[in-house]
Amino acid sequence: MYLDTHGVMLRQFSFRSSLLPFSSHSQRSFLKSASSTHPRIGATMATISTQNESTQKPVQVAKRLEKFKTTIFTQMSTLAVKHGAINLGQGFPNFDGPDFVKEAAIQAIRDGKNQYARGHGLPQLNSAVAARFREDTGLVVDPEKEVTVTSGCTEAIAATMLGLINPGDEVILFAPFYDSYEATLSMAGAKVKGITLRPPDFSVPLEELKAAVSNKTRAILLNTPHNPTGKMFTREELETIASLCIENDVLVFSDEVYDKLAFEMDHISIASLPGMYERTVTMNSLGKTFSLTGWKIGWAIAPTHLTWGIRQAHSYLTFATSTPMQSAAIAALKAPESYFKELKRDYNAKKEILVKGLKEVGFEVFPSSGTYFVVVDHTPFGLENDVAFCEYLIKEVGVVAIPTSVFYLNPEEGKNLVRFTFCKDEETLRSAVERMKLKLKRIV
Ligand SMILES: Cc1ncc(COP(=O)(O)O)c(C=O)c1O
């Protein structure tokens, strides 16, 4: 058990089997004992009680959030600590961000840049975001009217949904998806339609998408490079999405937090396609690119008429974002090209270690073109579903992965897949692979 920030005791799911020998038989027994209880991990893994069990009261939550429980990332990271497992689950680097950015933050604090910032961002940061966007996409945007600085991309997502979506509006998203999308769409009262991307290449089923888009569709939400699969949307896919949006007057919300981790092809911002800027919100942040996920500096770039709604929501969500960190973000975004090249080179090396290792362990590994994630098929190890597999992996092997069923509207669709991250130092990745080689045995 541990206390959350509100003093509520969270009891994570308990493993019902005691320590098991590491054999394929034990994998099967484990499966029987653990998996039957967890048809949907997000809905079942945490039980919550007050500090005093004798005065236990049912927890309360508004209807729009009642289907969402403790996020899988919190659950898995907590379990990782509890079991001394190597955390290849949550996507935060176990190494630090660059000194020149950290120094800029320290300097800003020393210089007294510690009071509320302007609501939509420090002017110099808005300019730095616009300059980088121009360098990356060729698009010239007005930093004062078309850039909104937010508390991480997560807030950009929430401000976009809450500022531009009305209750009952239809929004299409691609499953699997980053978990905050469904929750923020639920807060906005949207009607969610899912299009599933399937292995091995997770390509967009274009005919299915065409059938799904109509003049009732308000927006399509996309994420490229894509968490959790590592898929990058191809030019053909983006062009099809663009023409459907133009034809049906649909907006696009494009989450591009992994744009600098594009390995196999060039990243394309859908806003840069003809006719798309005026209907696109491009969302991004500092966290992944600068290994500073705890800083939560993000932004939304959109034409003035869409920025209005985003800023209205942002004003009443957080109003403004940390002043000294915004100051440091200015320095970050001015990093020389060599920084981005080196980042990619480092991540490529890490990816190679993990992908090669996972193949040697016996997984079917699906190709990942971008992000710092890779998705595998766990079924050769005989566990019934992704949740059972991840439970086994943490407790019996000492490695954390993320079950992907939590990323789907229909969890069944993700039950064969789990996600590993390689945003860890090379030694950690090698140790995780060694543990898996030692203790995981294929049974099929
Ligand atoms: C696809 C995607 N979007 C947004 C975020 C959140 O970004 P931030 O930390 O800037 O809020 C994440 C973090 O994991 C992510 O994977």
From TrEMBL:
GO MF term list: kynurenine-oxoglutarate transaminase activity; pyridoxal phosphate binding
GO CC annotation: chloroplast
InterPro entries per the record?
Answer: Aminotransferase_I/II_large, Kynurenine-oxoglutarate_AT, PyrdxlP-dep_Trfase, PyrdxlP-dep_Trfase_major, PyrdxlP-dep_Trfase_small
Keywords on record: Aminotransferase, Pyridoxal phosphate, Transferase
Reply yes or no: does the keyword Hydrolase apply: no
Please give the cofactor(s) recorded in the UniProt entry for this protein: pyridoxal 5'-phosphate
Record-annotated Aminotransferase class I/classII large domain positions: 86-435
Name the NCBIfam families on file: PRK09082.1 (NF006569)
Protein name as annotated: Aminotransferase class I/classII large domain-containing protein
